[in-house]
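Action item from last week, closing it out:
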Amino acid sequence: MAVELPFEKPLIELRLKIEELKQFTEEKGIDMSVEVATLEAKAKALAESIYRDLTPWQKVQIARHPERPTTLDYIRGMCDDFVELHGDRSFREDAAIVGGIARFDGYPITVVGTQKGRDTKENIFRNFGMAHPEGYRKALRLMKQAEKFGRPVLTFIDTAGAYPGTGAEERGQGEAIARNLIEMAALRVPIVCIVTGEGGSGGALGLGIGDRLLMLEHAYYSVIAPESAAALLWKDASQGQRAANAMSITAQDLFRFGIVDEVLPEPFGGAHRDPAAMIRTVKTAVSGALASLRERPSVDLSTSRYDKYRSMGVVMGGATHSRLVDTAVGDEGTNGAELEPEVQDSRH
């Protein structure tokens, strides 16, 4: 049974009425085609209005949909001759990150990405896509191997964040992610990164340093999950919707800020509605990105990558900062003075 999202409830109810009317028509032999057509037109208009004006929180819900294509779906749909490689050569295999070598458009390539499960059993095996430090070390091992043999690197990002458990911290979670950032920044081969669903915190950033950053239309990319931000700012994780609306975490926001290079359109209703079409769209975008990067000298790649990330972000303070905070949360009934101390503290 398909998983439906809360904001889709009016549309679901209308579609159920249409099915009931069709069933009634078949059972009673009464022609109600006009009524059915009217309701179908209404359902179409309702669906268009819902998906045309999605809020940031609704986009977060779509990004988390369990039926969205996973990293392995993209790899198998886009690449040929995929050979998965395992282990970090230090501690163990981490199933939350998958990677290996494959052929893309006839060229050898290294692919790495976070992997979620389809059901409870698989999600437990994949740790819900939240990697341990050995996962990031495996990813780095594969990327360094790609550099050695001159293969471009393609990363897929869909994770709520790196695993925050005690064992992960004991084995150096922060160091593993930081090491990936350093090494990816200087890697002498093209890197294309794609946020396909959730782009949560350092867990996403550990695979997110590249020459091109692409995002799906309803994906999000954030320093912290909306619920966690709400727990910090308002001491209430249930205020996740409020935080999402204030944080500018959607693909459209990040493209406007110059952080994302390209936003990839999703099928109507989200990538889970037509995974095959979504995979084709991603493949076309990746093909174009790699074509523009493949012939560039390695020195030029690392230099432009450095410049790309150095140019991100603007330091704000004083009245300008206060006005932005007021604007971000004013519609939620909270004034800037309430939020300002929390934001100021977070910068120290």
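Closing note: The longest strand covers residues 191-200.
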